[in-house]
């Protein structure tokens, strides 16, 4: 059995407009690399971090906390070292912390001979994610582990559904370089919502899931609407309305906040439209003094994977 493994741990988009805290999908244009290594010495150590300034202490890094959760359950007679090659900027809203949490548990599971299934891996990764977001949720973790689109039906007990990915779907994701604290993005949300808004939102979640099953792009377009969270959170993202308007004019099927922002994603039918949408979104921020990154990504149906 191998003693060392290198993996690609993908970025993910959570919420997907109408599916606040439950829906997510996996990207393949962006992701971290991680190396997980078995050691004779027991325990979990983070031995190298490249790219961003993140804590090396096992209990302060989501990769370490997730690894410890699994380690305490598996009780193996070895230890593990973790190297993190961070490419996903922390706090960008495309699952930077989730990628780290998923990477360590996936890698350790492979090196132990796969004692755990994907749902169990998500459970351990949730313990790490809780460090970054102060609550246990799996909407970024599930798509990173399972690939494609996922729906977290419940976290207690953990119940994850895989939803099919229409083949012509491409995402364009823009990351304006501004800081939004996840806690601030949570606090801004209303405690109660009108029943009529709840009805509209769950109708959209249901129809989006149906549309993904039958590859109905027009129905995807009609379903990608968030009337509950977006009206509040968009205030934290300068020029959100202009970006969304331009993306929709350029042919996007839908445009919404990725996770708790500041990244904004669109879903598009075909690479050509995704490129037009990229140009349209870029134009808005290039007229401001806000720096941005923008990517086109095919939906990653495989999720986290081993690389050589
Ligand atoms: P994102 O949605 O991009 O993951 P979060 O706000 O959920 O952003 O998580 C980023 C926070 O988690 C930062 O405060 C960061 O310092 C902390 N963190 C701890 N360990 C890691 C890690 N390995 N990767 C990314 N962020 C981490």
Describe this structure in words.
It is a single chain. The chain is α+β, with helices and mostly antiparallel strands and 308 residues long. It folds into two domains: 165 residues, Ribosomal Protein S5, domain 2, CATH 3.30.230; 130 residues, Alpha-Beta Plaits. Helices cover 37% and strands 27% of the residues. The protein has ten helices and eleven strands. The strands form two sheets. Strands 1, 2, 3, 4, 5, 6 and 11 form a seven-stranded mixed beta sheet that branches. The protein has a four-stranded antiparallel beta sheet with strand order 8-9-7-10, sandwiched between helices. Strand 1 and strand 2 form a beta hairpin. The longest helix has 20 residues. The protein is globular and about 60 Å long. The mean pLDDT is 97. The structure holds adenosine-5'-diphosphate. Adenosine-5'-diphosphate binds next to helix 1, helix 2 and helix 3.
Which key terms come to mind for this protein?
binds adenosine-5'-diphosphate, 2 domains, 11 strands, 7-stranded mixed beta sheet, alpha+beta, 4-stranded antiparallel beta sheet, 10 helices
